[in-house]
């Protein structure tokens, strides 16, 4: 049974493609070559294709980097790769049949050739630059050769004189002359948009790469509703131009939202289109902040509030603008009965690179000393000390419990930060030490359950008494009920610390069957084996977005979060797992279901607890296990509270609360370095960087857990941090999302901050 469980996570994929790859193997360094759309790169041993591509400056599409999002999918044309994860979670049957792989989860075993979505790079020159409003500018570029694209798509644009590249929609239809126009909104602190807006650009060289996206007009006869906000008019103008060229007769309504009269642009052009459009054309400009006493006679309000007035049953909608507008519009449409497949959207985002992933610490990394290995063994000492204090019972258990709190809370307060990242030449020692968590947790489980057993199971107490001369059976009999309560919490803390934290590290190693096996059993102690599914394929994909059950929105209290995250996390894991089974044509009610198998593992532990400690032992274990699970949810709460992110943007270090407190870092396998962990989930814990400039948690882990359990104190301390995050870290789009989150939080200070 276990073997199958192990096998599920390790598969080899060999290409069936016919193209011959003529590449040389670098035998000295034992590296493989990978040809990506014709460009050759070197991949180090055990390096995945995505990491190698990014390291060598290849612009490879990616997001989560842990096999959770499929952004890095590509087609294996030739060669063989070792796949680190179960790709059936993300790739469709068709994609699997056609040899698609995930670049971030594929380690070449031979020289390899892959194909990723083709990106054409074309150079050209700016020949026109027009300021349209205070915030909107238009530039026109003559390309050296014609660009192939669909009206409505976007490209990556860069202009001579500035080292920056951003995505912008093309505002005109494809043409033989190779002219592309862009409508660009000036974004506060936006490097390229400010450059385009403020510098004379005519005559400067430009580079476009693309085209991308699936925002283009679908062919059918249904009425069209277009909703544009700000510079979101650009791809819509392109689609309209193409529509005229194609002689489209479909009735069309264009809702164009702006704040004031002077923010409207391209009105004459739209009026011309209105006259020549073959079907009925309705143009409705809508102003949201136009003064009441102005001469404006048109519509007022938010553009999204007018959607319902212009719908028919079979409307096909095209939405383009800032993400909040697109999200609200989508909701309106769905509520009005428009099918999801009839809604097409282009969310305008700008990638913010504040605190980006750039790591340049090669020179400061030193060779790990004996102590650097030893420090990560501190958790074994903590686990074994707990066993002793539980077995000795009475005052010793109480002392053990309070000493643990003291060790973490005071230890973190006085020992400062650990920002070192030594270079470990023997990572296998650290892996072995992670694996040791299972025997230690099993020992804690047996001993703690034994302490409430009405009998001396297996003669364990007598054996210990003979060995050490301390009467363990008597100590057990004399332990008062209150101390058993401390014992439950202490055991729960150990299940969280020795079990969940270690399992977190291990279940990220989806390529290693032993780590997966141990990790899942460690999770079984907290009834949370679904973590091995949801965390990698859900949480890492959606972290800091509203889609993620583990990310707590602003204003939520921890007790509600524990419940909500547990229920939604289980539902999400079930969805992910059943989808995978369906894709593989496997029965949901079968051994193959890792969700069901995992819960059965926990149930078997409940049975074992009953055997060791009878009914008291069983209830003791259930309470301790649930407390362990609760701890995980509190930790989730602390790690991402109030953060916002656009799902389509890669996770950055700014999307997690980080801490470098020494005791927490040493005993929790650098889980504390959460900023780096989420930005690069494939990195082993010993190589995670401290990111001292990342958003910082209140303190070390146990201290922050205690604070989180007191909601007024939590919000008192966290609200200023969240507000600082908005100012210091949020991209312009995230700021918009933050405003919505503030409104929903119900917290007066956050709501007031929207007006600052
Ligand atoms: S699956 Fe590879 S980047 Fe997300």
UniProtKB/TrEMBL annotation:
Output the PROSITE patterns linked to this UniProt entry: 2FE2S_FER_1, 2FE2S_FER_2, FAD_FR
Output one GO BP term. lipid metabolic process
Taking every annotated instance into account, which residue ranges of this chain make up the domain FAD-binding FR-type?
109-218
Identify the species of origin: Leptospira jelokensis
Membrane topology listed for this record: Multi-pass membrane protein
The residue ranges of the 2Fe-2S ferredoxin-type domain are 19-120
Q: Which InterPro entries match?
A: 2Fe-2S_ferredoxin-like_sf, 2Fe-2S_ferredoxin-type, 2Fe2S_fd_BS, AlkB/XylM, Beta-grasp_dom_sf, Cbr1-like_FAD-bd_dom, FA_desaturase_dom, FAD-bd_FR_type
TM region(s), chain numbering = 398-414, 434-453, 483-506, 698-717
Q: Where in the cell is it found?
A: Cell inner membrane
The GO terms this record gives for MF are: 2 iron, 2 sulfur cluster binding; metal ion binding; monooxygenase activity
Q: Which SUPFAM superfamilies match?
A: 2Fe-2S ferredoxin-like, Ferredoxin reductase-like, C-terminal NADP-linked domain, Riboflavin synthase domain-like
Write one Pfam family the protein is assigned to: FA_desaturase
Where mainly located? membrane
Q: Which GO terms describe its cellular component?
A: plasma membrane
Protein family according to the UniProt entry: Belongs to the fatty acid desaturase type 1 family. AlkB subfamily.
Q: Organism's domain of life?
A: Bacteria
> Any idea which UniProt keywords this protein has?
Cell inner membrane, Cell membrane, Iron, Membrane, Metal-binding, Monooxygenase, Oxidoreductase, Transmembrane, Transmembrane helix
Question: Can you say what this protein is called?
Answer: Flavodoxin reductase
Entry's CDD domains? Alkane-hydroxylase, fer2
């Amino acid at each position: 049974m276990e073997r199958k469980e192990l096998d599920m996570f390790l598969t080899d994929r060999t290409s069936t493609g016919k193209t011959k790859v003529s590449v040389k193997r670098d035998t000295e360094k034992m590296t493989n070559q990978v040809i990506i759309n014709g460009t050759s790169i070197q991949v180090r041993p055990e390096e995945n294709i995505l990491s190698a591509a990014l390291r060598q400056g290849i612009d490879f599409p990616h997001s989560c980097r842990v096999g959770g999002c499929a952004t890095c999918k590509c087609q294996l044309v030739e060669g063989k790769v070792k796949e680190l994860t179960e790709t059936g979670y993300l790739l469709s049957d068709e994609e699997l049949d056609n040899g698609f792989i995930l670049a971030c989860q594929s380690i070449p075993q031979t020289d390899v050739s892959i194909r990723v979505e083709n990106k054409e790079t074309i150079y050209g020159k700016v020949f026109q630059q027009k300021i349209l409003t205070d915030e909107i500018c238009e530039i026109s570029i003559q390309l050296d050769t014609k660009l192939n694209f669909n009206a409505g798509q976007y490209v990556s644009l860069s202009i001579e004189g500035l080292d920056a590249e951003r995505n912008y929609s093309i505002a005109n239809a494809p043409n033989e002359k190779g002219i592309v126009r862009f409508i660009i909104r000036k974004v506060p602190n936006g490097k390229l948009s400010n450059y385009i807006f403020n510098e004379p650009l005519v005559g400067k060289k430009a580079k476009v790469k693309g085209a991308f996206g699936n925002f283009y007009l679908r062919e059918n006869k249904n009425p069209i509703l277009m909703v544009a906000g700000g510079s979101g008019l650009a791809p819509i103008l392109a689609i309209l131009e193409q529509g005229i060229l194609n002689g489209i007769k479909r009735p069309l309504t264009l809702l164009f939202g702006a704040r004031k009269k002077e923010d409207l642009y391209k009105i004459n052009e739209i009026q011309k289109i209105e006259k020549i459009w073959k079907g009925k054309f309705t143009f409705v400009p809508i102003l949201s902040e136009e003064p009441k006493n102005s001469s404006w006679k048109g519509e007022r309000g938010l553009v999204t509030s007018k959607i319902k007035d212009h719908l028919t049953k079979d409307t096909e909608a095209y939405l383009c603008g800032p993400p909040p507008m697109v999200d609200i519009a989508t909701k309106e449409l769905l509520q009005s009965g428009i099918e999801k497949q009839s809604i097409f959207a282009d969310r305008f985002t700008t990638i913010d690179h504040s605190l980006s992933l750039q790591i340049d610490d090669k020179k400061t990394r030193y060779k790990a000393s004996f102590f650097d290995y030893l420090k990560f063994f501190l958790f074994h000492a903590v686990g074994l000390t707990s066993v002793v204090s539980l077995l000795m019972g009475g005052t010793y258990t109480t002392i053990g419990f309070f000493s643990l709190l003291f060790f973490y809370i005071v230890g973190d307060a006085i020992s400062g930060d650990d920002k070192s990242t030594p270079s470990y030449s023997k990572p296998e020692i650290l892996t072995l030490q992670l694996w040791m968590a299972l025997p230690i947790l099993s020992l804690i489980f047996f001993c703690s359950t034994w302490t409430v057993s009405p009998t001396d199971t297996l003669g364990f107490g007598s054996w210990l008494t003979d060995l050490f001369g301390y009467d363990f059976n008597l100590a057990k009999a004399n332990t008062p009920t209150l101390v058993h309560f401390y014992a439950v919490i202490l055991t729960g803390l150990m299940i969280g610390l020795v079990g969940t934290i270690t399992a977190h590290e291990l279940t990220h190693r989806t390529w290693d069957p032993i780590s997966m096996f141990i990790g899942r059993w460690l999770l079984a102690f907290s009834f949370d084996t679904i973590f091995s599914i949801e965390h990698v394929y859900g949480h890492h994909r959606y972290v800091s977005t509203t889609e993620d059950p583990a990310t707590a929105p602003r204003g939520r209290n921890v007790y509600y979060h524990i419940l909500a995250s547990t229920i939604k996390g289980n539902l999400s894991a079930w969805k992910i797992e059943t989808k995978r089974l369906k894709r593989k044509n496997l029965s949901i009610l079968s051994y193959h279901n890792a969700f069901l198998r995992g819960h059965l593992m926990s149930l078997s532990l409940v049975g074992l607890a009953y055997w060791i400690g009878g009914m008291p032992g069983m209830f003791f274990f259930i309470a301790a296990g649930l407390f362990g699970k609760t701890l995980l949810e509190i930790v989730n709460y602390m790690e991402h509270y109030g953060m916002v992110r656009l799902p389509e943007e890669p996770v950055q270090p700014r999307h997690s609360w980080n801490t470098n407190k020494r005791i927490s870092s040493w005993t929790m396998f650098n889980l504390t370095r959460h900023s780096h962990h989420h930005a690069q989930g494939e990195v082993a814990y010993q190589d995670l960087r401290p990111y001292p400039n990342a958003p910082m948690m209140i303190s070390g882990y146990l201290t922050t857990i205690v604070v989180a359990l007191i909601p007024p104190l939590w919000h008192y301390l966290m609200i200023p941090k969240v507000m600082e995050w908005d100012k210091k870290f949020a991209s312009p789009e995230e700021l918009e999302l933050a405003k919505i989150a503030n409104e929903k939080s119900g917290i007066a200070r956050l709501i007031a901050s929207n007006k600052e």
